[in-house]
Design goal:
The longest helix has 14 residues, at 404-417. 28% of the residues lie in helices and 22% in strands. The chain folds into 2 domains: 4-271 and 403-417, 3-Layer(aba) Sandwich (Rossmann fold), CATH 3.40.50.150; 277-368, no CATH class. The relative contact order is 0.14. Strand 18 (358-361) and strand 19 (364-367) form a beta hairpin. The chain has helices at residues 15-23, 46-54, 65-71, 111-121, 147-158, 192-197, 204-209, 211-215, 233-239, 277-280, 295-299, 304-308, 370-376, 391-400, 404-417, and strands at 4-9, 30-36, 59-61, 81-84, 93-96, 103-105, 128-134, 161-169, 180-188, 218-220, 225-228, 253-257, 260-264, 266-268, 292-293, 311-316, 322-327, 358-361, 364-367.
Length: 418
């Protein structure tokens, strides 16, 4: 079969692109035709510069995707697969579009950019979607647990897509970082996978028959449940699960077709090789001096040991109320015989922090180098190395990135499913 044509939204430094290329074979796989990356909070578009440098053959857009959709929609090529790691935001529906284009949510909420592309492409909309988000998406917002995901599912159902989702912790499947994210696959009506899903009614699709199941083997953990997704996006936005302290009905795995939800909790079932933090480390002799931590820095009053320790501190609120701030201790230094903790955007910089990694190697303490952070997300070494981009920014990229190996496995399973 011909390679599937792909566009990548919210592309960052190209995690989806890398994973899909690695999932491809010589005459079967994926070709990323077009990508978009725009960071509204910075003047210099560092991530976009890295993307363009690493993928010069991909037509790349460094403009606000909302502007592209409204003013330059013809620049977005027709494609078979749309991918993107869009931000987790408040998806509540706020406005009606003019010119009978239907309903849409708040401007600036990037889910609606995906929805707009699908809707405006019409008969040429992509057959498949592969999306990624923080797992909080399934339970947000606090006052209407699961509402945001319900709005997404209703939007996709209205556009003729069936959906499956799974919360995947990369470390559970032998990858070097404990990073939990929800991955979403969608299949347009008329595709082979959609037609097979029409015949499914039970938990077998989650446990053995679905694309997620083929990519990431899992075992049943809680009872399988089914329920209809009632109402349009407006009524869901206003009324979905609006009872105080209600739990989200969406478990960590599930699928939806023709408005019927099926969901359950599953447990990873991985028997293969496992990669741990020690496996990605450079030899200590190759670690630049600025990443080495002296004993004085580690033991200072606000140093690394203090940051990682448990605390009970009396504080005064702005209103004058006295309260006790407490937090438990963390491993110090980080254990080398396990997958790493989740890399965060603030990983870079010399300042001691509770959330940054610090490791002991050859009896000496040090922080993680950019190339090691890249390895934790399964990027090639020095993927983010570019003139004018510092170590802290490279760490920021990896805090925002996904684990490439997850995308690669999903890409291979999708190709087989098609």
């Amino acid at each position: 079969m011909a390679k599937l044509k792909v566009i990548e939204l919210f592309a960052g430094v190209g995690g989806f692109h890398l994973g899909l290329v690695q999932a491809s074979e010589a005459n079967k796989g994926f070709e990323v035709l077009w990508s978009n990356q725009w960071e509204p909070s910075t003047k210099k578009q560092h991530a976009s510069l890295v993307y363009q440098s690493r993928f010069p053959d991909c037509k790349h857009s460094n403009k606000n995707i909302e502007h592209v959709i409204e003013e330059e929609f013809d620049q977005i090529p027709d494609h078979d697969l749309l991918v993107g790691g869009f931000p987790c935001q408040d998806y509540s529906v706020a406005t009606s579009l003019r010119n009978s284009k239907g309903l849409r949510g708040k401007k600036g909420v990037l889910w609606w950019s995906i929805e707009a592309i699908l809707r405006q492409k019409g008969a040429d909309a992509p057959s498949y979607l592969m999306l990624e988000n923080v797992d909080r998406l399934l339970i947000s917002p606090a006052g209407q647990r699961g509402r945001d995901f319900a709005i997404m599912l209703r939007s996709l159902d209205d556009l003729g897509y069936a959906v499956e989702w799974r919360v995947i912790n990369a470390a559970d499947y032998g990858m070097p970082q404990r990073r939990r994210r929800v991955f979403i696959l969608a299949y347009r009506k008329g595709t082979p996978i959609y037609e097979r899903m029409l015949k499914e009614k039970g938990k077998e699709f989650i446990l053995s028959k679905g694309i997620m199941a083929h990519a990431f083997k899992a075992k049943e953990k809680t009872k399988f449940q089914s329920f209809p997704l009632k109402g349009d996006v407006i009524s869901i936005s206003k009324n979905f699960n609006n009872m105080d302290k209600a739990l989200s009905p969406f478990q960590h795995a599930g699928y939806m077709i023709q408005g019927l939800i099926h969901t359950m909790k599953v447990q990873a079932d991985h028997q293969g090789k496992r990669t741990v933090l020690e496996d990605v480390l450079l030899p200590y002799a190759e670690v630049p001096k600025e990443f080495r931590v002296t004993k004085a820095e580690a033991e200072a009053a606000q140093g690394w040991r203090y940051q990682k320790s448990g605390k009970r501190i009396e504080r005064i609120s702005r209103s004058g109320h006295s309260y006790v701030f407490s937090e438990g201790s963390m491993s110090y230094p980080d254990p080398l015989d396990r997958p790493s903790r989740t890399v965060i955007t603030g990983e870079g910089g010399k300042t001691p922090s509770r959330f940054k990694h610090i490791v002991e190697q050859d009896g000496k303490l040090r922080r993680l180098c950019p190339v090691e952070l890249e390895r934790l997300n399964m990027f090639p070494d020095d993927h983010t190395a570019l003139k004018g981009i510092g170590d802290a920014k490279r760490a920021f990229f990896m805090g925002n990135a996904l684990v490439v190996g997850v995308v690669e496995r999903l890409g291979k399973a999708l190709l087989k499913g098609i």
